[in-house]
Amino acid sequence: MSRLLQPKTLLAIKDLSLAAKTVVAGFMSGIHASRLKGAGQEFSQYRSYQPGDDLRWLDWKMYARSDRYYIRESEMETSISVHFLVDASNSMLHEEAGITKMEYTRYLTASLGYLAHLQGDAAGLSVLHHAGLQTLLPRREAQHMARFYYQLEQIQPGGAFITPTAYRNLFTGPHTRQLLVFITDYYERNGEITTLLQTLAHSGHEVLVFHVIGEEECKGNFRGYDAVEDLETGELVMLEGGHNIDGYTKNTNEYINTLRTTLLNKGIHYRSLFLQEPLDKALRDFLNQRNKPR
Questions:
Q1: What is the spatial distance between Cα 20 and Cα 126, in angstroms, rounded to a whole number?
Q2: Is 2 domain-assigned?
Q3: pLDDT of 24-37, one tens digit each?
Q4: What backbone torsions phi and psi does residue 207 show, to the nearest 5 degrees?
Q5: Claim to verify: residue 109 and residue 73 sit in the same structural domain
Q6: pTM to 2 decimals?
């Protein structure tokens, strides 16, 4: 299927639910509880064929008896669209423990996309790239997932986070509520990422944010360096005098805690993930926590 799908990770998460925790496209809290007519397992009724219906569910015996096309309906659980938004700015090339933030993000997105597809949900992908927005609309077919994994593998980070004019297409088209999973290192200069997330949440979508960080990045161990370079702008930041590692770590932790609180207050779920954290463990811990009764 894809090199991004690691058996260890898939085995760890395959039995856990990614269902929306709020009402999303007819879903109630936590599970795919509501029922719709469709191509499920338990027979319910027949209905006349409509253009666009899946031909696999035509009942040929009914056609032979009546010379008319009928779809065999059954009760099935509703499904949702899970749309993955991937930050492809240049800071995602930061590397620790032999892996970049972008590569970690690829594995994370592929694993959650696989899980969504396994549950019968439509999976989509939007890459927020400096050159513009690249979008693969949510669909459920197996062939679509092959394109989904291929697009993930082809992402080439570059530049700064895209401007609002570049991602305005996220707010156009059918007004269907979705579960939006945003993966980012949350490097912003003027609140641009927070503004985007708030707009998405206000549009009625449920938003989950995975904040990918490196442990060394949080510690700020810059001994032996006179300056550090901004990966997105190329700007050099001079390190004048002694660098207080303890103070830097404390400020970083305070920033992350403030960010988490800010997003939760806006109805946006937040989870930080360290590059050094095994992905299978990180996802299982997250999904178990998410699916706990509240």
A1: 19
A2: no
A3: 233 222 323 334 44
A4: -120, 130
A5: no
A6: 0.74
